[in-house]
Amino acid sequence: MKSGCQVVDQIGEMDIVGNIVPHLWYKNITFSSGKAHFVAITLLADIVYWYRPTMIRDDSGMIVGARTKFKGDMLQKSYQAFADTYGFTKRQVKDAIDFLVEHHLLVREFRTISSSSLILNNVMYVKPIAGNVKRVMEQRCNVSDLVSICPSVTPERTTSSTSMEGLSPQEEGSPEVGVGTYTESTSKNSSENQEEEQGAGECPFTFFKENEFGRPGSYMKEKIRFWCERLSDSLVVEAMKRAVERGKHYWSYCEAILVKWEMLHVQDVQDAREKESRLMAEKSSRRKWFTEERVKPLQKSPNDELERWWDEFEASLDSESGDVK
Length: 325
What we know:
This protein is mainly α. The chain has helices at 6-12, 25-28, 38-51, 79-86, 90-102, 130-138, 190-200, 204-210, 218-230, 233-245, 251-263, 269-295, 302-324; strands at residues 54-57, 63-67, 75-76, 106-114, 119-128. The protein has two domains: 15-169 and 177-188, no CATH class; 202-295, Arc Repressor Mutant, subunit A (Orthogonal Bundle), CATH 1.10.10. Helices cover 50% and strands 9% of the residues.
């Protein structure tokens, strides 16, 4: 069936899969100032997509059932996964998730997942509160008017599991937006997996204390926690490791490294190493160029020739003036 417009027909042939953002969300999901909270809207649209059922069809194309796009009772995604997908900072993602939880549009749980060889702490799971999502989708209802319609969930609740089923790769047909989640570790090589497992088992607070940075009082704990949320636990530990290797057992040195990594938009430990290697190569190249430029012989410019000619001309005038005298 053709519409008569070539572009419309071409778009109609595309198999577009992904998020749908209801227009009312831009009016209902807002800051107190009334401006749309674009980060929260984007993340909620992503989460709602994952909770939309995937239809199961028979050979004739008839719908015979439905299934979830993920395994387990809730969707597992990390702050970093959202940040990598949409180009936000980890801090922006956390603030937006906090906003959605506080305004009763989202439930968030942190769990401890364990197996025979690996323990993952603070694995984040999220699910939308369907009733409130429907309200802000279908009627003029600002998030400030929403109330909780589900049992409260303890934010730091942890559960143990003897299997890693809850962290399995997502089902087929789902968009590839799991970068940065624990589910992605199954597709990486063994050395990367080993490095991530080692990083997952290192607590920044424990490393701080065991490597004689001092006693982690409430102030230092807040500083460490700030950078763990802004970057990641593994990067904070890596910064402290570098300080230890250089014999600089003080936090200000670690923080200087973390500030530099934030400016470079570092994503993880491997990314930090790669970007620093590139910077060192560029610095070496600039130093080599500067050295070569300094030892080059000076070349005369047209201005130099003009000045020489003018000096000779003035000398000749003086000479003629002397003859007259």
